[in-house]
Write a structure and sequence with these properties.
five-stranded parallel sheet; 11 strands; about 325 residues; globular; EC 3.6.3.-; alpha/beta; ATP-binding; ATP hydrolysis activity; two-stranded antiparallel ribbon; nucleotide-binding; Helicase, Ruva Protein, domain 3; ATP binding
Length: about 325
């Protein structure tokens, strides 16, 4: 697959998702980048802003097997990974796969479950492998986690630790739609009650596993000039030296940002990466990997504002 075909595939998936989901074009763009860069994405927003529906429509359009886990305080790691159950008919243990054995996994309200269960996702997200009773089991090469969390509740939730947040390629903050977008949502979906389904809105499958894998291979071959590599490194290292941040981004942040920039360039129809690709993705790729300093918090600054300032300060190659 060449870059023009990757761009056409991305446009087709956007068009299908856009039939049902209104006002989340940026989220769809980041999900496409994450898919082709083999990353995961965290969606944070209030209830009723179509986070779950977006994941369903995206999985259907991209031809990915879809699975969902509703995280609760009593969820155990075995409920996610699966377990070996004794079969009395055969007198043998049989592996029962958990919902993690899919291609696009929606981890709904991931901050509602204790850290022990959250940690069950770590190996799967990083290595696409799960270990059950000492035996490794491979997940799909296209395995992708779309996690959601509710930022407006503080009771009965367990904030994600930094180690797990660093596994996400992007964190996207889902807000409320504009007036016109909300009118369109009400007009389109106001005649139905209950959870909408992608097929009700004509969302069709436009890709399959082989197509997505070929697109990912084409993305990985995109050219990344040494000057752009240096720019990514300087930008990530700047997060560790500014006084506004107590903890900066990790080296993994730079590596994943470079991979994401390759995918963004391909979706734009280019076989080379520009500094603008890095600039556009930097907020979503870094906001969850940094911690504000006490002084910045007192001043009311946000991680996004600090990152935007660093993007302006760090000189980009011409």
């Amino acid at each position: 697959m060449n870059i023009e075909e990757v761009k056409a595939l991305g446009d087709a998936i956007r068009a299908e998702v856009g039939k049902a989901v209104v006002g989340l074009d940026e989220a769809v763009e980041l999900m496409l980048v994450a898919l082709f860069a083999s990353g995961h994405i965290l969606l944070e927003g209030p209830p009723g802003t179509a986070k779950t529906f977006l994941a369903q429509c995206f999985a259907r359009a991209a031809g990915l097997d879809y699975g969902r886990i509703q995280f609760t305080p009593d969820l155990l790691p075995g409920d996610i990974l699966g377990s070996n159950l004794f079969n009395f008919q055969t007198s043998q243990f049989t592996l029962t796969h958990g919902p993690i054995f899919t291609e696009l996994l929606l981890a709904d309200e991931i901050n509602r479950t204790p850290p022990k269960t959250q940690a069950a996702l770590l190996e799967a997200m990083q290595e696409r492998t799960v270990t059950i009773d000492g035996i490794d089991h491979k997940l799909s090469e296209r395995f992708m986690v779309v996690a959601t969390q509710n930022p407006i509740e503080s009771q009965g939730v367990y904030p994600l630790p930094e180690a797990q947040l660093d596994r996400f390629l992007f964190k996207f903050e889902v807000g409320y739609p504009s007036l016109e977008q909300e009118r369109e949502i009400v007009a389109k979906q106001g005649s139905r009650f209950g959870m909408p389904r992608p097929e009700q809105w004509g969302v069709a499958q436009v890709a399959d596993h082989a197509t997505i894998s070929a697109a990912a291979d084409a993305v990985a071959a995109n050219r990344l000039a040494d000057e752009v590599v240096d720019y990514v490194v300087r930008l990530v290292r700047a997060t560790r030296t500014t006084g506004d941040l107590q903890i900066g981004a990790s080296p993994r942040a730079g590596a994943t940002l470079a991979a994401a920039a390759r995918a963004h360039a391909a979706l734009d129809g280019r076989d080379f990466v520009l500094p603008d690709d890095v600039k556009k993705l930097a907020p979503a790729a870094l906001r969850h990997r940094v911690i504000l300093s006490p002084a910045a918090e007192i001043d009311g600054r946000t991680a996004d504002a600090v990152i935007a300032g660093l993007v302006e300060q760090v000189e980009a190659p011409r």
